[in-house]
Design goal:
heterotrimer; A mainly alpha; B alpha/beta; C mainly alpha; A: mainly alpha; 3-methyladenine DNA Glycosylase II, Chain A, domain 3; Alpha-Beta Plaits; about 10% strand; disordered C terminus; B: alpha/beta; Rossmann fold; elongated
Chain lengths: ~180, ~525, ~325
């Protein structure tokens, strides 16, 4: 009896020590969690999650302060990836219509050059200076819509990116095994 | 001369259906009421409009200049008036529209003055520029700008007359009727690329074309002979097999070199042009005619199948009407039945890549049987010409497992359709591959955009931080300054007050006036 | 459907029908040697397979007709019937078919998704659950059709002399009792090369297998790998100790070797995917089968060998990817 207890304790100690040593010795210096989360987020910087940008939201998730399904542009796809990364449960955002990517467009006739939108843009995609007409560099625009509210003359509108053969995508095949319900 | 033929793996042998259209000579079509010429005709670049609405143009006159080094020019296919410049549907599976020039023919069909270039005397850059300015792109369907290919320096030039797609006979007819031009074009291309060996590969199901081309090679025009110099030109008969007409496949058959899908053919000292492209090069350089028309095979469910010399920009509906499309036609395919696509819109014009139009009916092209589950039978693996495992790609693509699809080398796939052709479960494999590859490309783009946005956001955040820091530093500096200044002021005031006090002691009568002044200042 | 717009006239039905046709010579030999009882079992298996398939498809809300008509269930049913003793009671056959169709196939997502060979899974389940029934085989000319029918319909099995052990069983028992291979082979159970009567059935399967190879329904790498695997092991052991290990010919002609070589390991769903991978897979099955036959306690080892190699398929696939075009080194 005593021998058995001793043997088991001995084995437990040896294994424990080995595992503990391995944990220290083979520690994988991975990306900090917040950066891994940030890599998944769509980088729209739209602040719709309630944080001032993707990075702050990623940091908040990493600290476990918030839900993982607050990202509107990323959608359920994003949430699923985050759930996988963090081992948390996937929570759908509910019926959200997938929006086509849009970019902001300033009506140059109406713009009064107030620079308010320039200050609002999280990725510095609007150029112009005081009393000068502003314009959006559509290449850099993430479609976050943060420039819309500050505009005093409502001269900014969101337009869909034009479809070209280059950015056109083939659809998922719809033939085949469908459920006959 | 090495005449050994090599056999690549895979491939299929579908019913050829060539005789429907191959037995009548190339015919001309009447000029339609209007021509729509899209500015984008090549795969790499576009043209920039140089005419305005109302301009009178001559046949062959440049109406769009090549944009950048990769673009190719476009020309008026007939004489007439530019009536509109606007967006028109493209012959593309997406059915999207593109910027196009509309010309109303005047019926005169007046050519510009021809300006041939003698390839034996003109310098190389000049010739290559002329190819670009003549708007020549690969006419096999890929529409890759020919001047970019002609720039390469190589040993072996392959001229592709395999035409392996069923139904398609444009190259066959062209070789039968205009072999001399093809050979001259090939000689010019050999001259430009410095190729010592020119191999013309023709599938053995086109005996007349082989005979005509052989005769043309034997009785080469003097200018072509001079271009070729010490180089050799040989016609090689290759076995009929789909997809031998794909350039890397044909190169493998002719030279035994299997070029990895990710490598360029020039890396192996080889370049490949289609026979129709060689023909166009000959017309452009030796005759001074830019590309204004092409041969289109119209076949399938039409009353008069055959090959038609069609002006570029002719609406496809007009061409089909001329060929007598039958009323029970369900849809129209552009390109061959193996790799072509269903035209979403028949108003789209004939472009430089439009090699074949097939009117489809239920009898000729029955709708595919319903898809069954994959049983991994391996038929697709045997048929794949690039040694992929299409069923593995299918499992990955179907599950949207894009990393898995990449692992199974999705991007080696050339979408030739052999796998789907043989699949006993009738799975539209190519559909899945196209979906997966376009999705992966789009996601890569998105990732790039996201990375850029992240960078810009972080830069902005740090800039704001810095500005804030700078501002507070500035404020702090000013505060200190103010403080020192006010301290100095206070000292001055104190000194002044002392002086006043001293004076007051001397002149007591002034004290009453001076006191309020201190209060105000402190 | 984008492209291609044309298709070769091929279908899963055609593949499955060819496999069924290829099984006919073997079945004919079976009937010739052991009577028509096997036909009854085949019918029972077919009916229960189709019923099970229909039931599960309905439950899974899948299109019924497309899958039911593709013939895959019938192939599974026939294989199950052929690997169970032909005098097994009807409910054993039905149970085997249910394990194959429902347990091994549909629970994993239906045809094409199952990691384990359904017929082999059924065999393993049955031999573990009913070892006694699974080792009662008819002896040649020993059982007339009426008796077979009686047994199949679940009649009492007390009659002696009509059932016997298979050649592999006799060999194993004999060797266990410290017999010598040559002495054992003189027993009535054995014919020219393998089990008496069974060698003819094996020959029938070979005929069917050659037909499948000629029609390119099965790749040569699988039967070859299996036969090489088993043949090498058997030959080496036979050369070293002929008194303790029977010859490779005996192995080939006994048990389900030829059925396995051409109809079991060739199941495309559960084998490896590349040609080299297929060869390795089949080689493994051959080796493990021999090991179980030589040292195990079960009458035949094919089923366990196949399932064990099924487990290894993902690893084999990972280890034997096809080389990209232009740098091929993947042919065995």
């Amino acid at each position: 009896m005593l021998a058995a207890i001793l043997i088991m304790t001995g084995i437990a100690l040896v294994l424990g020590a080995t595992l503990g040593y391995a944990a220290v010795y083979f520690k994988v210096e991975g990306n900090p969690l917040a950066e891994q989360i940030d890599a998944i987020l769509p980088q729209t910087q739209c602040a719709q999650c309630g944080y001032p940008g993707c990075k702050p939201y990623a940091e908040a998730i990493a600290k476990g302060e918030t839900e993982i399904n607050l990202c509107t542009p990323g959608g359920d796809d994003n949430t699923r990836k985050l759930a996988e990364l963090l081992g948390r449960e996937f929570k759908p955002r509910g019926a959200l219509v997938e929006k086509l990517k849009t970019v902001a467009l300033i009506d140059e006739q109406t713009c009064i050059g107030c620079t308010l939108c320039i200050q609002a843009c999280p990725v510095d995609a609007i150029i112009g200076s005081s009393k000068q007409m502003h314009t959006v560099v559509s290449r850099y625009c993430t479609g976050c819509e943060l420039c819309l509210p500050p505009c005093p003359v409502d001269c900014i509108s969101m337009v869909e990116e034009p479809r070209t053969p280059q950015n056109w995508r083939w659809k998922y095949p719809v033939t085949g095994l469908r459920v006959v319900a | 001369m090495n005449l050994k033929i090599f056999t690549p793996r895979g491939g299929v042998h579908p019913d050829s259906h060539k005789t429907e259209s191959s037995e009548t000579p190339i015919r001309h079509v009447p000029m339609p009421p209007r021509l729509i010429i899209p500015l984008i005709q090549g795969s790499q670049g576009s043209a920039r409009t140089i005419v305005t609405v109302g301009d009178k143009v001559l046949k062959g006159q440049c109406i769009g200049e090549a944009e950048g080094a990769d673009g190719t020019s476009i020309h008026a296919p007939t004489s007439g008036t530019v009536t509109e410049i606007g967006r028109y549907p493209m012959a593309h599976p997406s059915g999207l529209s593109s910027q196009s020039i509309v010309i109303e023919p005047d019926g005169e069909n007046h050519w510009i003055t021809y300006e041939p270039l003698d390839p034996t005397t003109a310098n190389r850059d000049e010739l290559i520029l002329r190819i670009q300015a003549s708007g020549i792109v690969g006419m096999g369907g890929a529409v890759f700008p020919s001047h970019l290919k002609a720039r390469s320096k190589i040993n072996t030039l392959v001229i592709n007359g395999a035409e392996c797609e069923p139904w398609m006979t444009g190259d066959d007819r062209l070789m039968r009727e205009r072999a001399a031009n093809i050979v001259s074009g090939a000689a010019v291309l050999a001259h430009l690329t410095g190729a010592q060996q020119t191999l013309i590969g023709i599938e053995d199901n086109k005996p007349e074309a082989i005979a005509a081309t052989r005769t043309a090679v034997d009785d080469m025009e003097p200018v072509a002979r001079e271009c070729l110099g010490t180089g050799k030109m040989t016609v090689i008969v290759v076995p009929t097999r789909y997809p031998t007409g794909e350039r890397k496949q044909l190169i493998h058959v002719l030279t035994g070199i299997e070029i990895p899908p990710s490598d360029r053919v020039t890396k192996f000292g080889i370049q490949c042009f289609n026979v129709a492209t060689a023909h166009a090069v000959c017309r452009a350089l030796l005759h001074g005619e830019p590309m204004v028309s092409r041969i289109v095979t119209v076949t399938g469910n039409v009353k008069r199948p055959g090959n038609y010399e069609t002006p570029l920009g002719m609406p496809i509906a007009d061409l089909l009407a001329f060929c007598g499309v039958k009323p029970n036609t369900t849809h129209v395919l552009m390109g061959g039945p193996m790799m072509g696509f269903t035209l979403p819109n028949l108003d789209a014009p004939v472009t430089k890549g439009c090699n074949c139009l097939i009117a489809a009916s239920k009898e000729l092209f029955p709708p595919p049987p319903s898809e069954q589950p994959c049983i991994r039978c391996g038929e697709c693996v045997d048929a794949c010409p690039v040694n992929l495992q299409p069923f593995e790609l299918y499992w990955a693509s179907r599950a949207k497992n894009f990393d898995g699809a990449k692992y199974h080398r999705l991007f080696d796939c050339m979408e030739c359709g052999c796998c789907a052709y043989v699949c006993p479960a009738h799975i539209p494999l190519v559909d899945y591959f196209r979906y997966a590859s376009s999705e992966i490309r789009a996601r890569d783009e998105e990732q790039k955009a996201a990375d850029q946005a992240r960078m810009r956001f972080e830069f902005r955040s740090s800039r704001l931080e810095r500005e804030k820091a700078e501002k507070s530093a500035r404020l702090a500096a000013r505060a200190t300054e103010t403080r020192t200044k006010s301290a100095a002021d206070a000292a001055l005031i104190a000194a002044a007050a002392e002086r006043v006090n001293e004076q007051a002691q001397i002149e007591p009568s002034l004290q009453d006036n001076a006191a309020p002044l201190y209060d105000q200042q402190t | 459907m984008t492209s291609p717009h044309i298709r070769q006239p091929a279908s899963v039905q055609r593949v499955m029908t060819t496999v069924l046709v290829a099984l006919l010579p073997g079945i004919a030999a079976y009937v010739w040697q052991f009577g028509a009882g096997i036909l009854v079992n085949l019918v029972i298996a077919t009916v229960s397979a189709l019923a099970a398939e229909a039931l599960v498809l309905r439950l899974r809300k899948r299109p019924l007709w497309v899958t039911l008509s593709d013939g895959s269930a019938i192939v599974t049913a026939w294989l199950v019937a052929l690997i169970l003793p032909s005098i097994a009671p009807w409910w054993l056959t039905v149970a085997g078919v249910l394990v194959a169709i429902i347990g091994a196939k549909h629970l994993y997502g239906g045809i094409g998704q199952n990691p384990f060979n359904p017929a082999m899974a059924a065999y393993c389940a049955m031999i573990v659950a009913y070892p006694a029934l699974m080792s009662q085989w008819p002896s040649v000319d020993g059982v007339d059709f009426a008796t077979q029918l009686h047994l199949i319909l679940g009649g009492s099995r007390g009659i002696d002399g009509i059932t016997g052990a298979t050649a592999l069983d006799t060999m194993r028992t004999g060797l266990h009792n410290l017999g010598n291979v040559q002495d054992i082979l003189t027993s009535n159970t054995f014919g020219y090369a393998g089990g008496r009567g069974w060698e003819w059935i094996a020959a029938g399967y070979v005929v069917g297998g050659v037909f499948l190879l000629a029609r390119r329904i099965i790749p040569w790498s699988l039967p070859l790998g299996f036969i090489v695997g088993m043949g090498v092991m058997a030959s080496v052991s036979y050369l070293i100790a002929p008194e303790s290990f029977p010859s490779p010919l005996f192995h080939f002609a006994s048990g389900g070797t030829m059925l396995a070589a051409f109809f079991i390991v060739t199941d495309p769903v559960t084998c490896a995917s590349s040609p080299l991978g297929k060869f390795i897979f089949a080689l493994g099955v051959g080796i493990i089968t021999w090991v179980i036959r030589a040292f195990g306690v079960y009458p035949d080892g094919i089923a366990f060998a196949v399932l064990l190699m099924n487990i290894c398929v993902p690893f084999i696939n990972r280890a034997t990817p096809l080389a990209p075009a232009g740098q091929r080194k993947d042919r065995p």
